[in-house]
Target: Phenylacetate-coenzyme A ligase
Amino acid sequence: MAQSHLDHWLVRRMGWSGSRRPSSGEVRCWQMEQLRAVIEHARANSPFYGRTLAGFDVEAIRTAEDFSRLPMMTAGDLREYPEQLLCVSQDDIARVVTLHSSGTTGKPKRVFHTQDDLEATINFFDWGMRIMIGPGQTALVLMPGERTGGVGMLLAEALTRFGARCVPHGILEDGKAALDQIMAENASCIVGPAAHVNLIAYWWERLGMPKGRVQSVLLCWDAAPEAVVRNLERIFGCRVFRHWGMIETGLGGAVECEPGSGMHLREADVYLEIVDPDTGKLVPDGDVGEIVVSTPLRRGMPLIRYRTGDSGRILPDQCVCGSPMRRLDPHVSRISDGVPVGSNRLRLADLNETLYPISGLADFAVALSKDTLFVRVCGSAESGRRAHDALASMPVVAEANLAIEIEMNNDAAPAVPGLGKRQILDTEW
Model:
């Protein structure tokens, strides 16, 4: 079987010299070797790891089970000890990202990236995007493109390397304006958050635009609901891919090789474990748990067993493409997703699959205040009535006897401004 673009990336990143692609077992052995090396590097150069990893026999780490005995780190460590996690001089840092968590007023997380880290991300984007777009084609990216080391600029550099073109649209403020730019730039690929691309698709259908003009979509940055994937496939008539990543891991984390394939992990740069969030023990492939990540090749600010707070699972079977890289189920969510409602929990993931299938609904936002569910709906007037009925039929809403108030927003703006991760608000806007 011919190697995929992602396998070509893996072989080069591993420095694999064989005439065939490595097996999954060979990838695991290589990962353990790199993890042993990064542990030694971190203990020798980071005050934080010098404390937390002292006394462990690194050479005894040969299996995933061995590695899982190391202590885990948390987002709190990134807030409290960012400089202590550094393993190089700050003169060697090319970009520092400060992350403020929603709803908190404490210290932000600070993540340091070297130029090698940024180059590794460009390299992954380069090979991953070749699945979706070819030389001479244009991608419209719904993110800023002017920030040095930002995702828009890294993606633009990656596309340029194989002859494609990147047009950064910036943060979406007007779905119809983005549609106009797609047409003006002759873009065949759209990259952006699911909610924003769905808003563009709403206007595409409303204005009677033809299928086939947009040939591929990459959903990234936030959750990618199945309902949105189906909307985009139907309205654009295109292939829809999904990506998962984090600022902490250098943005790129996992991407689909074909629509619906499951997201192949960026195995050379991100070692991923799924653990029971209560016990910290590894769970079998196929079981849902907390995603824990390590960065084997990073030397500036390596992460070793970082608890992401995301819930997900590794798909148990091998992909039909034959790649040795494991696959992450696209249905990744926050462990803390949702708000308590009576004895149940109202989850954004469930709201996404309930509301996005509604005809004429472009976008939505939800807030829960006391016993009332406030819903801002972007789209047609009829979609607002349908949203009310769909919400009323949800067991968690009906059992709690929640009142539902719909606010219609019929312009082209998204329901929530900016690029922040969507969540259920705990107060009316």
In short: Residues 1-335 form a domain with the Rossmann fold fold (CATH 3.40.50.12780). The chain has two domains: 1-335, 339-409. The mean pLDDT is 93.
